[in-house]
Amino acid sequence: FVLVVRPDASVLRAAVMGSIGTVAVLTGRGKVPAALLCLCATVLLVVDPWLSGSYAFILSVCATAGLIFLGPRLTAALARFLPRPVAVLTAVPLAAQVACAPVLVLLQPNLPAYSLPANIAAAPVVPFVTIAGMAAVVLGHLAPPLDYPLLAAAGAGAGWVAGVARFFAQAPGALLPWLPGPAGAGLMAAAEKKSMLSEWTSGCAGVRPRSFRRLTGPDDADGENGRRRWTTVFFSLVLASLAAVALAAGWRLIVPAPGPPKDWLAAACDVGQGDALAVRTGPRSAILIDAGPDPSALDECLDRLDIDTLDLLVISHLH
Questions:
Q1: Nearest Cα to 275, choosing from 238, 236, 316?
Q2: Edge-to-edge strand list for the sheet holding 277-282
Q3: Average pLDDT over the chain, rounded to whole?
């Protein structure tokens, strides 16, 4: 898989951890996820210390840590009122999102409103797409005609993932404003810590220790205490989210985003996936190199740059 998709930082993390895990299982040591993750990160950072600054590597490690430390607790909590397969399907992307959210804020100061349902909708086909795609790559070298059904199946699954992503990305309110930079990351981490502590202290995550049960009595014999705890956790999460969004919106109103300097020469517009580079040719004119896939984002950027006229439009490639 690494040879096919190239050794990206997140791919290396997964490959090294999978290899170490395989050795652990074959030697009878079983799976020790937390230890494997630490060993994997240590090995990769010793080999390539520059990975410590790679967002792909950091997000991959954070997501895995979230699955290890938060996944079982969230699954046990959700399984109290959801069927276990549904609880697992919900807990996995939620745990990864919680672990990655502070780092994602550093990349883009927005709060994705629909990432959880999007991941839930896309997750079931991902293992099939991966396995079918790899099998198609192998058959494509050994017996090319036999790989067409697998390619079609994997392509259909990948199309489903892309369709889910586009649907939720275009939904109203898909990205909510958030504080940028370290302050935003710290606020996100603090909000998540408060939410997780509220959940754990309310006894909703997993089975409580015996000593704690002896102090507090039986575990919700009639279910009333459980419902009360979940109600408290739910409203705590809602209030914390509303407060964070209100604070972020207020910050944006009080402190507007900085504009470009008056003597700018070139500007890279944020158009999402792709590039759009404006090279100034006059007070209100420029040359535009590529345009990206989002017209509204490019229009907003050109308006901020006070560009009324494009002297030349350069398209670098037919993508």
A1: 316
A2: 266-268, 277-282, 285-289, 309-314
A3: 78
Max Cα–Cα distance, the chain, nearest Å: 77
Rounded to 10 deg, the angle between the 84-107 and 55-69 helix axes is 150
Q: In 10 A of CB 239, how many CB atoms?
A: 10
- Are the C-beta atoms of 298 and 275 separated by less than 8 Å? no
Strand pairing class (110-112; 175-177): antiparallel
pLDDT tens digits for 137-169?
888 888 878 888 888 999 999 999 999 988 988
Q: How many CB atoms lie within 10 A of CB 168?
A: 19
Are 273 and 292 a contacting pair, CB within 8 Å?
A: yes
Structure tokens at 193: 């810590």
CA distance 265 to 227: 60
Nearest Cα residue to 165 out of 110, 103, 119: 119
Angle between helices 55-69 and 9-26 (to 10 degrees): 40
> What's the pLDDT tens digit per position in 172-215?
888 888 888 888 888 888 887 777 666 555 544 444 444 334 43
